Amino acid sequence: MPDTPLIAFQPAELRARHDGWTAEKQIAFIEALAETACVEQACRRVGMSDSAAYKLRRRPCGAAFRYAWDAALDYALHRLEAAAMSRALHGVARPLFHKGEQVGEWRHYDERLTMFLLKSRRPARFGKWIDRMLAPEPEAVEDDEEGLRLGGALDAIDCGGPVEDGNPE
């Protein structure tokens, strides 16, 4: 287990049992849940049942565990979003067979996935008309210079203008 947990929280203080939720098991469960996004798999990794996990989540003393659980699933969603973005950008390899043998592969690009990502991430540009009307104006973060340069470069690409040193003209 790493020295610094991915999601810091105060484990619930429970009565000591040889087969119960120790602080170490709670931390390991949250780490596994962030990695797998599956309660059943995370429970298997720490040797506990999923019903015991849900019981601890519902207990009043398990509030921090519950918040860490939600944070772990949120972290897993970021990983899922990154994986979907990668599939949209790079496609998925599909094998080509001839007479029962693989002779090559082709890249399948899921255009529905691409459109979903564009509509959800950039509704002002790719959403339905109501999404464009309701989309908030993007706010610039002053201390995020790299993000601003990237945003300027993307805007220049969208508009077809030249980009020099990350600044659109």
- Helix fraction bin: 55-70%
Principal-axis shape: flat
What is the averaged pLDDT score?
A: 79
Largest sheet: 2 strands, antiparallel
Q: How many DSSP-defined strands?
A: 4
Distance between termini?
A: 49 Å
Return residue spans where pLDDT drops below 50 for at least 5 consecutive residues: 157-169
What is the chain-wise order of helices and strands? HHHHEEHHHHEE
Give the count of helical stretches: 8
Oligomeric nature of the chains: single chain
Please state how the strands of the largest beta sheet are arranged side by side: 1-2
Q: Beta-sheet strand percentage? A: 5-15%
Radius of gyration: 23 Å
Q: SS-based structural class? A: mainly alpha
Q: Could you describe the 3D structure shown?
A:
This protein is mainly alpha-helical. It has a domain at 1-76. Helix content is 56%, strand content 11%. The protein is built from eight helices and four strands. It has helices spanning 23-36, 39-46, 50-58, 63-90, 111-121, 123-126, 129-134, 145-159; strands at 92-98, 101-108, 163-164, 167-168. It has a two-stranded antiparallel ribbon with strand order 1-2. It has a two-stranded antiparallel ribbon with strand order 3-4. Strand 3 and strand 4 (167-168) form a beta hairpin. Helix 1 packs antiparallel against helix 2.
SSE inventory with pairings:
Layout: H1 23-36, H2 39-46, H3 50-58, H4 63-90, E1 92-98, E2 101-108, H5 111-121, H6 123-126, H7 129-134, H8 145-159, E3 163-164, E4 167-168
Antiparallel strand pairs: 1-2, 3-4
Summarize the structure.
By secondary structure, the protein is mainly alpha-helical. The protein has a domain at 1-76. It is 56% helix and 11% strand.
